[in-house]
Design goal:
Blueprint (H helix, E strand, L loop, with lengths): L25 H7 L2 H10 L2 H13 L2 H12 L4 H6 L1 H4 L1 H11 L2 H9 L6 H12 L10 E8 L6 E8 L5 E8 L10 H12 L5 E5 L3 H4 L7 E5 H20 L3 E9 L8 E10 L4 E11 L11 H11 L1
Helix pairs in contact: 1-2, 3-9, 3-10, 4-7
Length: 313
């Protein structure tokens, strides 16, 4: 973990090698920093630290959140304010800019000017955090193709996320299982962020297990009851992995409901097992889980898989 920045450290443009702040203290530091320091702190924030700041901001009372946004709108330039949309939301920052920023900053913010890398760096940060400039109610589809470097086999996945980057639907075809793949610090932080959207006892659960799609950030995560995550859902994932080990393709469709909620109550899953040799269906399953403890799943065992594959040939 990065050590916190002292508000007294020099953070102006002439200070090389700015050390990013710890996300747990970012809100306090930004509130007490002078304008030059605040700009330096925001410039140094990494994606996981922005995710932590976002959690801090969401936990604040509305009045306190607006006060901090107003303070920052009076200290920061357009590039930093656009970056903080990832923590405060676009509407929250835009309102603060209208209230407290000077005319030059307001104009630059409105035009998206002031930083030639806004569409690159800030866009990538928002994508990692599961955010975008979509209007309320809009959805976005995000695809990923993950290649196993050992075998060359490919898993395809596509997520539909809502206007806040929360997954509501996913589809994928599994052809390989990644073994011994460690999760990055960013992925671990994203899991914490997803868990924080839920209730006590939740974990940041993967829509498609990490062993199938590796690091994908918040688009592949939702607040999932820990018992469900490590029990029935893991059992189902183990079944998918076993089908893949048998040389089969597994085509999956997952729906999380209700939509536009931080924590889904229900997970509906359908999947088909396809023999890639002839494209024939070997097996299909439909199952609905409640996002709570005590869920169970009666998986197909390895011997049954052999019989099903033989019968479909």
């Amino acid at each position: 973990m990065t050590d916190p920045i002292s508000p007294n450290v020099r953070l102006n443009g002439s200070s090389p090698g700015i050390e990013p702040p710890a996300a747990s203290t970012a809100a306090q530091i930004l509130s007490s920093a002078d304008p030059a320091q605040a700009r330096g702190v925001v410039d140094a924030l990494t994606a996981p630290q922005l995710s932590g700041l976002r959690s801090e901001v969401e936990a604040m009372p509305v009045a306190e959140r607006e006060t901090l946004a107003n303070e920052l709108a009076g200290k920061l330039d357009a590039p930093q304010l656009r970056k903080l949309e990832a923590a405060f939301g676009r509407d929250g920052i835009a309102a603060a800019v209208d209230r407290r920023s000077g005319p030059e900053v307001r104009a630059a913010y409105a035009e998206g000017a002031g930083n030639a890398d806004d569409d690159g760096l800030i866009g990538r940060l928002k994508d990692w955090l599961g955010l975008s400039d979509r209007a309320r109610g809009e959805t976005e589809e995000i695809s990923a193709t993950v290649v196993n470097p050992d075998t060359g086999e490919v898993n395809d996945a596509r997520w539909t996320v809502d206007d806040e980057g929360r997954p509501i639907h996913a589809e994928g075809t599994l052809r390989t299982v990644f073994s011994g793949i460690e999760r990055s610090d960013d992925e671990t932080q994203a899991q914490r962020t997803a868990a924080d959207r839920g209730v006590e006892g939740d974990q940041g659960g993967h829509v498609f297990g990490h062993r199938f799609v590796t690091d994908q950030g918040l688009k592949n995560l939702f607040p999932q009851n820990g018992n469900f995550n490590m029990g029935a859902y893991k059992t189902l994932e183990n079944e998918w992995a076993a089908w893949v080990d048998k040389g089969m393709d597994v085509r999956i469709s997952i729906d999380l409901s209700p939509r536009e909620a931080d924590r889904p109550d229900r997970v509906r899953i359908s999947y088909d097992v396809i023999d890639p040799a002839d494209g024939g269906r070997v097996y299909d399953q439909r199952v609905t889980f409640e996002n709570r403890a005590g869920q169970s799943y009666d998986r197909v065992d390895v011997g049954q898989m052999d019989d099903l594959i033989a019968a479909a040939s």
